[in-house]
Amino acid sequence: MTCDRCEAEAAFHHADVIDGRRREMHLCLRCAKQAGMVLPNEPPLLPLDAVVQNLIVSHVGELVGELARATCPECGQTYMGFRGQGRLGCPGDYQAFAKGLSNLIGRFHGATRHVGKRPKRSTLDCDRDRIRLRNRLRDAVAREDYETAAGLRDLLRPKDAD
Amino acid sequence: MNLDDLTRTSGEWLRGTGPESDIVMCSRIRLARNLNDFPFVGRAGRGEKIEIENSVKSALAKADASLEYLPLASANKLDLQFLVERQLISREHREADHPRGVAIGPNENISIMVNEEDHLRIQVMHSGLSLHDVWETINALDDRLEEHLPYAFSPQLGYLTACPTNVGTGIRVGVMLHLPALVQTKNIDKVFRALQKINLAVRGLYGEGTQAFGDFYQISNQQTLGKSELDLIKTVNEIVPQLIAYERQARQELVRERRQHLHDQVSRAYGVLKTAHTITSEETMLLLSHVRMGINLGLIYDLEIPTINELFIHTQPGHLQKLQGTPLAVDDRNTARASYIRKRLAAGGRTDA
Question: Taking CB atoms and an 8 Å limit, are A91 and B147 in contact across chains?
């Protein structure tokens, strides 16, 4: 059997069922490694990044449906982006990608609820509007829309002065 | 802060004192924290990273934490390498090229990396096995910082972190162990496998993916969600005495069954270190590891553990070049290293006060 991505002989075979549809994957070692599908062969000193990548790929599989299009309204990070980098964009991503993350978190930690220390003062969700504002500011600067940028800067200023 | 002053000392966690310090080099806890009103570091723009840096700096001043802040964006390569060797910053923090820094506490017990993977990576280290003391220090520091920083926290998921593998408590509880006999008796893999089964990670001296230089290994928790900080500390705390017992058992086995070979190995290692004229960092680590075990087994009498601990650090490339006061090419480093070790050991192995 040849690799799904190149002409080489497939060495990695993977099948799973997502939303009732069976999906098969056949890759050569090189393509499988590129796709993060093969565990590096050094269990004792396993780099955490590889573990995370592997977990993401094996528990989320190929992206389908709404997760594939999910974007955090606060910071603009996409679920696709998280899947590639293994890092979230902002605290709001935990809500925006809850569907994809709960499996991964449950699997990695063996738990889904926090136990332990809590901050004495509560942080407010409205703090996070500022991430959205900063995000828009950055976009505005990038497209050289300085008028919008100035307005956004004004919105951000009073609170930053606290 | 003048890093050159730090060069001549070796950091409190290397003091070589504290409970079980012949095997447990140091205990360390780190907490990952993020500000609620900024994107995580990977997604933050340059301006935002500067704002994060400023918020943390001002919180540190208000919290009166008596830490000194070192901005790293303009730091030179040698200083960055030095901070890595000192365990004050991670290799990732060294490699980054965005606005970032590290706040360092008295005796180097405390370090707070700013704009590493998370906005704050707070770390406290003590010599020997003393996780509870470490927890008290870091918990109090975290409380003080929290009064001035809006931490990202969700009642369901706990402290929110850039990587979901740290979410919850954001805690990593670690001990650094010297396990030369388990390596020599080829039992170390068994230990690794056993630790993995109970969800503990094993890393080399300088963090993820690094090889175990000089038979030093860091054992730490992987799970951060669903168990309290004290429970996670307990898990590590309970396994360490077993590892210490295994290592002691392996040492006794070596003494019993291969005493002459062991004595020869330890003495040769000591001999090479005392007389070599050029030596690599790797060989140095290996030989120092043999000598360290030799001292602990009473096979070497005229040398103290703190001297060896100091040599482990001072012979690393960054330290060596800072001590020499000039950047050196690899060959020159190997010569300078051998000369430094010869002098240090000829001084009778006495440590500076």
Answer: no
Choose from A83-87, A139-143, B98-102 the range with maximum mean pLDDT.
B98-102
Residue of B nearest to A97 (CA): B164
Q: Please, which residues bridge with residue B110 across strands?
A: B124
The pLDDT tens digits for B334-350 are 999 999 999 999 876 54
Out of B151, B208, B223, the one facing A123 most closely (by C-beta) is B151
State whether B223 and A44 contact (CB < 8 Å): no
From first CA to last CA, the distance across chain A in angstroms is 64
Helix ranges restricted to H, chain B: 3-8, 46-62, 77-85, 91-95, 131-146, 180-184, 188-197, 229-275, 281-296, 305-314, 317-324, 330-346
Higher pLDDT among residues B214 and B82, named by residue: B82
What is the C-alpha to C-alpha distance for residues A49 and A54, in angstroms, rounded to an integer?
A: 8
| Alpha carbon distance B236, B130 (integer Å) | 11
Percent of chain B having pLDDT more than 90? 64
Question: Is residue A155 scored above 90 in pLDDT?
Answer: no
Q: What's chain B's average pLDDT?
A: 89
DSSP letters of B59-92? HHHHTT---EEEE-TT--HHHHHHHHHTTSS-HH
